[in-house]
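Researcher: Checking consistency across runs. Here is Biotin/lipoyl-binding protein again:
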Amino acid sequence: MKSNQTLSLAVVGLALAGWVGYSFYTAYQPQPMRIQGMIEAQQYSISSKVPGRIDQVLVRKGDNIEKGQLIFTLHSPEIEAKLEQAKAGEKAAGALAQEAETGARSQQIQASKDQWLKAKAAADLMEKTYQRVNNLYADGVVAEQKRDEARTQWQAAKYTESAAFQMYQMAKEGAREETKVAAAEKVRMAAGQVAEVEAFAADTQIESWFEGEVAQVLLQSGELAPQGFPVVTITDTKDAWAVLNVREDYLKHFKKGDTFEAYLPALDRSEQFVVAHIAVMGDFATWRSTDASQGFDLRTFEIEARPVNQDSELRVGMSLVVEL
């Protein structure tokens, strides 16, 4: 009986010694290094290139958005007024170009011809008058002064006839080729101005260029939206990645293209990630001195990793843990 008790005590003592030894062994074993990261995703800002007052916001936070879907509308009386002005200018330029191509109206041509015929008749009359006065001068009836006056009036009438004839020719020929080209170019310029204002007007109906989920709605109906101010932000949940800040002495575990496993507490499961990018320049976000006497330290590098299986359940801000 006594020997059995002794044996039991020996067994208990050995077990206790083994447990203490194992505890000391495990206590002095190196602990796994844990690196915590965060999920990020591509975000887009939906804004307008023209300022205006928000008319309607057609989405809410959490809505899933398709590419080309109408997001919000603007009310801008200034753009509407400018569009009317531009269209009026285009019509005026077109009318001038048409006039240049068509030339003068038949009534204008006839009026110019009548002015020329009138001037020609006056010139013929002054020529006859001069011949009579010259004959009288030769007979000594009139003074030389009278003859010179008649001759001057005849010459002036000839110049008036020539000017009237040139005006008549211009009316028949119409505008010069350079004038027609200039008028046509003014039409093109006016059309460009209309197209520009129409583009601004179209940008009061803002559609999404991306697919994703509405993350924020920053302005509401009735508020003023400055040019380029983000009214709605969209998160592309299908384009998510993990960001880790890794100290450089652990950087050997993360090479571009390597795969590692990370635990996501929010989803209570592990996911596989592939290293996609390693920051070229280190940062001092966290550091540890390697030589206190010389002041050397370890830098931190930012690593981006893409999930092997892109999962829409990944949300911005989720934590993930990697054990090395």
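Researcher: Does this match what you'd expect to see?
Model: One thing to look at in this run: The CA atoms of residues 216 and 233 lie 5 Å apart.
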